[in-house]
Specification:
With 72 residues, the chain is α+β, with helices and mostly antiparallel strands. The chain has helices at 15-19, 45-54, and strands at 2-5, 24-26, 33-35, 60-63. The strands form two sheets. Strands 1-4 form a two-stranded antiparallel sheet. A two-stranded antiparallel ribbon has the order 2-3. The longest helix is centred in the last third of the chain and has 10 residues, at 45-54.
């Protein structure tokens, strides 16, 4: 999984930080999202997906990576 954020669309609601604080943070001066982990670890993937769904500005995208042949 790769996470992409569009800071220009962000409305600083903080939903992403509340949902996945290990992956998202907010700039102190204006609350705009800051991506901490472009490729989050496996145990955080569900939280990242949920954060993307909750984002009121739709400023977070999750690019799922297809498994290579032979992977489980």
């Amino acid at each position: 999984m790769k996470v992409i954020v569009d800071q220009h669309k962000c409305v600083a609601s903080g939903q992403c930080v509340l949902t996945a604080p290990e992956v998202f943070d907010q700039r102190e001066e204006d609350g705009i999202v800051v991506l901490l982990a472009e490729t989050p670890p496996e145990h955080l993937l569900d939280d990242v997906r949920q954060a993307a769904l909750l984002c009121p500005a739709q400023a977070i995208w999750v690019a799922e990576q297809e498994k290579q042949e032979g992977e489980q």
